[in-house]
């Protein structure tokens, strides 16, 4: 690899081991550390955080204070779990050192910073991935496969609800960039189509400079309409995605990784006044049996496999990961929602710059 030695000096036939570093030891960082330690083909060799190690994540590993110190440990890959405002600085340093990087979502604090990260990784043939973990939720992975197989026929709408109490750890972005980016990414991914336009309304109830509640609608390039309710103001936690199509609806609960199919019923009528109404009625309801691996583990395995496929040179292999370019597109949609709420109008994505 470009920075470390994890893929060098191995005996013939032995699987390469990627030397991994982690920067950012907050709530999400400690989970990354746990999964890195459990992922085959990866060795966590050092962790870093300028503010220390509040959760005792380092254990026997070196606890470093900066990305530069982390790079000097000779790492092949890194996970960047620092606050969003530091993603650009840390990500660019890792790219300059030739380190494949998984950066937590959103890709950066703004689209211009995100575009610089995309350029830095793509120009060096590095794997740059963004941690939109909902793509790896078993319920949504199964749902995407079923939609691609045509189980619903034509899809009409994707609606999401993502609500819960305010997390004190989030200080540098609002609910759209922090939580709403999950729903933006998963909607475009499920439909296999980018957003064409968005409209949004927000509130500021927490005494902060950033929004804490959003109600947003959108339309994808393929005509599917979307609806998103996201807030930090609800006493209950909810993570639900509903996809409605011509044959029924799927409901995915990503807190429990449950996927339920609501089928359209068939009801005949001889009542002339309603016979011409071509609506639907309730049919069978089936909670589908699916395997439920941990999403974060699946995400790390996909990142590992992409790095090994890339081989440290040439175009980065990003199959299976959320590429930085996809992460940038998601951030552009989030910023379009913020603009829509501020100006009280529908925003066309074609009218929004790419951040470059």
TrEMBL record:
Keyword Magnesium in annotation: no
InterPro entries attached to this UniProt entry: Gfo/Idh/MocA-like_OxRdtase_N, Gfo/Idh/MocA_Oxidoreductases, GFO_IDH_MocA-like_dom, NAD(P)-bd_dom_sf
Highest rank taxon of the organism: Bacteria
Stretches assigned to the Gfo/Idh/MocA-like oxidoreductase N-terminal domain: 19-132
Protein name as it appears in the record: Gfo/Idh/MocA family oxidoreductase
Keywords: NAD
Gene3D superfamilies documented for this protein: Dihydrodipicolinate Reductase, domain 2, NAD(P)-binding Rossmann-like Domain
Entry keyword Membrane: no
Organism for this UniProt entry: Arthrobacter hankyongi
Domain GFO/IDH/MocA-like oxidoreductase: 141-250
């Amino acid at each position: 690899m470009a920075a470390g030695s994890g893929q060098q000096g191995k005996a013939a036939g032995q699987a390469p081991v990627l030397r991994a570093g982690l920067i950012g030891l907050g709530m999400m960082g400690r989970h990354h550390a746990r999964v890195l330690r459990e992922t085959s083909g990866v060795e966590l060799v050092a962790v870093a955080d300028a503010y220390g190690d509040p959760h005792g994540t380092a254990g026997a590993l070196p606890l470093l204070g900066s990305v530069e110190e982390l790079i000097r440990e000779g790492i092949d890959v890194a996970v960047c779990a620092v606050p969003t405002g530091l993603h650009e600085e840390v990500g660019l340093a890792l790219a300059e050192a030739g380190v494949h990087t998984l950066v937590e979502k959103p890709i950066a604090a703004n689209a211009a910073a995100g575009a610089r990260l995309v350029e830095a990784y793509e120009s060096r043939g590095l794997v740059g991935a963004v941690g939109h973990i909902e793509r790896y939720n078993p319920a949504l992975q199964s749902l995407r496969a079923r939609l691609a197989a045509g189980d619903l026929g034509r899809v009409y709408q994707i609606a999401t609800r993502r609500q819960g109490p305010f997390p004190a750890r989030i200080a540098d972005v609002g609910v759209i960039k922090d939580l709403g980016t999950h729903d933006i990414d998963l909607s475009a991914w499920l439909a296999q189509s980018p957003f064409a336009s968005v409209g949004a309304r927000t509130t500021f109830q927490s005494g902060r400079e950033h929004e804490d509640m959003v109600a947003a609608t959108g339309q994808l390039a393929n005509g599917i309409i979307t609806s998103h309710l996201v807030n930090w103001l609800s006493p209950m936690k909810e993570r639900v995605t509903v996809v409605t199509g011509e044959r029924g609806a799927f409901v995915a609960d990503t807190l429990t990784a449950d996927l339920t199919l609501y089928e359209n019923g068939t009801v005949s009528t001889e009542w002339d006044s309603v016979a011409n109404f071509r609506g639907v009625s309730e049919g069978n309801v089936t909670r589908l049996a699916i395997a439920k691996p941990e999403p974060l583990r699946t995400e790390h395995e996909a990142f590992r496999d992409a790095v090994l496929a890339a081989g440290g040179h040439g175009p980065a292999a990003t199959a299976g990961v959320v590429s930085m370019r996809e992460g940038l597109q998601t951030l552009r949609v989030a910023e379009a929602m913020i603009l829509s709420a501020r100006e009280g109008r529908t925003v066309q994505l074609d009218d929004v710059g790419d951040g470059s």
